[in-house]
Amino acid sequence: MSETTNAATAVQPKMPDVSERGLTAAQVEDRIERGQTNAVTSSTSRSLADIVRANVFTLFNGIILTAMVMVLIAGSWKDAVFGFVIIINTGIGIVTELRAKYTLDKLSILVASDYLVRRDGNDVEVSHNDIVLGDLIWLRSGEQVPADATIVQTWGLELDESMITGESRTVRKKEGDTVYSGSTAVSGMALVHVTAVGAHSYAATLTAQAKVYKKNVSDLNKGINTILKFMTFLVVPLCILLILTQMKTVGGWSAAIASGAWRQAVVSSVAGVVGMVPEGLVLLTSLNFALAAIRLARKNTLVQDLDSVETLARVDCLNLDKTGTITDGGIVYDDFIALPACASKRQAMQALYDLANEESPNGTGRAVLAGLGKQGFTGSAQLERVPFSSARKWSAVAFHDEPEAGQGGVWYMGAPEVLLAGFANQYPDVLKQVNDYANNGMRVLLIAHAAGEVPADFETDPKLEVGAQPVAIVLCSEHIRDDAEPTLAWFREQGVRCRVISGDNPVTVGAIAGKVKLTGDRKPVAMDARELPQDVDELARVLENVDVLGRVLPEQKKAIVQALHTQKHVVAMTGDGVNDALAIKEADLGIAMGNAAPATKAVAEVVLVDSKFSHLPDVVARGRQVMANMERVASLFLTKTVYSALISFGVVLSMIPFPYLPRHISYIGALTIGAPAFLLALAPNTRRYIPGFLRRVFAFSVPCGIATALSVLLSAWFVPKLMGWNVDGSAQYQLLWRSMCATVLFVMGLYVLARVATPLNSWRGWLLAAFAAAGVIGMCIPFVAHFFAFQLPGGKGLLALGVQIVIATLLFALSVWLFPKFLPVTMRSVISQYKRISKR
């Protein structure tokens, strides 16, 4: 055997003699040839090619790329700067999904190690992957179960199945019981017969389900894609019409091709197309999600899927796992309650300390030692000990010498029902008291004392003395996180319904939920998950009236999330065990603790790195900030879409040159939409998301877009007539004309920005003034003016521009006031709702 095996067996009892000889070498070879080994093929969650393809070949990229290529073919690279948004947006998407792929590919529930297997009557060591179906495995304390198996013989085997079932207490196994891969042996040993290996084992099944890639559905991105799909049907025919129109304005196809004027016609057509696509909104969404993730990272919160930042704003239902979320998994000593038979509380507490002071105390023992140690208790020197055994459910110490009167005899500590059942007197009052404490979520131990001589076979053949009397009740409890109660209070105030879903006893979980005021002053309604209906719709109805669920299996946790989805709830799920992984993946937002199992962290969208439940309000608030502010700034971008489409229609109908260039819209968009939108999106905002994002945005954008389009078209139609300019034949007049139209568009953009930024009696007013000044100053700087093709008119032209700005102002005010009057009552309420929201 290897050095590792010798070290492992050194701390184990001598291997018992068993009749089973295990598989023969020929049988092992046969199973290997059939592929019945414990090796699991690691399948990637999503290929690199799929990720690149999904992010590059999008509808948005297709529209923008086509427009950019057309401009570059026309030889006007200055008008193609809008195309850089493709590179930035695509890069952000690819990097984000590659990070998710890397995390999922590392996912593994089972820890590979070597195991002792009985083959041909000999015990040999094989690796995790070399275990085959039908093998006999020695499962020893400290080892993880490598494959699903049935126990053939057991010598006190106890398993920690918390990572699989969610049950925090260890489970004692007997012959014929099934053990699942992924659980861990904490004491004893057993010989087990492997019944499922590799991909067919329970842990591998969980891993495979958890590795399935899930793309979060972003309400914001869905709204943007809806607009893009609509614009696709509009852009293609409109682009063709624009090209035909612009070709006619430069003398027709033959003259345009002969003179090269077709290039300008193409550039003018692209100006209308690019304006209709809210390219900045797509980029700003990705950037804001990324910035939110960076801000959360500073607070030890890792966002693994950027789209999940938006989901945070919509969460209205939060499912909490008890252990690791509300409690930290530790045990604390709470109280020592002396019973009438206790002659000396001090002596009984000393005996309790000695009972807990074993060589390797369990969690409860450590809590007792810590609690009594603070009160000055230390271990006694002379005593005999019977260590705690899960089979007996009790431990004992005996004092032959009596340092104090009444200290001698045998002292017992263990499960109250077991100790009381072994005494001559059943003590029904004590049992009732014990049950009352247990029903309040306490972990209850009983201390009993049998005075007199210590039996000679105390250590070799320990048994309960029927004449022993219960002298004290010891109360312990799970340690509740200090931040649990205030965090839950915050969620209640925000209208988020919280439920505790655990694998533990529903009474215990319900009591803990009551302590942290899960439901405020109302007592939480607890239920055993074994009583839940199978039908999803019926399950959803039951859940509406339940606050706490205990004895929940992993499959049930997933079903609970699915049932809540049928009621249109946006569900967040927290957890730390493998048993939570499927539910976390099914939820709209999966939140894992930093100390969670690797499988759970891999499938979660958000990881609380330092496992602090108190970070959740910050997480939700950050999501609300992004969503509320993005709704505000989306109005800016969609206003541009509306007026670009209307201006394009006006140009086609009136057969005039397009009134501005792509570089004009890039300049104006940067100062009245792009940069201001980015700053507005970073402003504090904790408003809870309200459904109807797209309707509210359009209710704002349509009147503003109509006013802007009319103002630009009026300038385009009447300025040449007033000034006597021939914009079709003179390049100089065309430059002046387009500069005036672009200036009117800039002023209208400022009006729209002012309406979005309302109220202006704060930093938002200074923001508006700063960008207005930047726009005017930029037009006066020769290099900037030349690059963006601006030329301000003088004399009569300047007066005409002033008149157009006044008319535009009146049109904007009239449109914003008049438009809602012609809408149905429902749409009026949408506009009113938008106004209330925008003031926050």
TrEMBL record:
Its EC number is 3.6.3.8. The chain crosses the membrane at residues 56-74, 80-98, 227-245, 265-291, 633-658, 664-685, 697-719, 735-754, 766-792, 798-819. It is an enzyme of class 3 (hydrolase). Its main location: membrane. One of its GO terms (molecular function) is ATP binding. It is found in: Cell membrane. GO terms for cellular component: plasma membrane. It is a multi-pass membrane protein. InterPro entries: ATPase_P-typ_cyto_dom_N (IPR023299), ATPase_P-typ_P_site (IPR018303), ATPase_P-typ_TM_dom_sf (IPR023298), ATPase_P-typ_transduc_dom_A_sf (IPR008250), ATPase_P-type_domA (IPR059000), HAD-like_sf (IPR036412), HAD_sf (IPR023214), P_typ_ATPase (IPR001757). Signal peptide: none annotated. Residues 116-209 form the P-type ATPase A domain. Gene3D superfamilies: Calcium-transporting ATPase, cytoplasmic domain N, Calcium-transporting ATPase, cytoplasmic transduction domain A, Calcium-transporting ATPase, transmembrane domain, HAD superfamily/HAD-like. It holds the Pfam family E1-E2_ATPase. Keywords: Hydrolase, Membrane, Translocase, Transmembrane, Transmembrane helix. Coiled coil: none annotated. This is Cation-transporting ATPase. It comes from Bifidobacterium choerinum. The lineage of its organism: Bacteria, Bacillati, Actinomycetota, Actinomycetes, Bifidobacteriales.
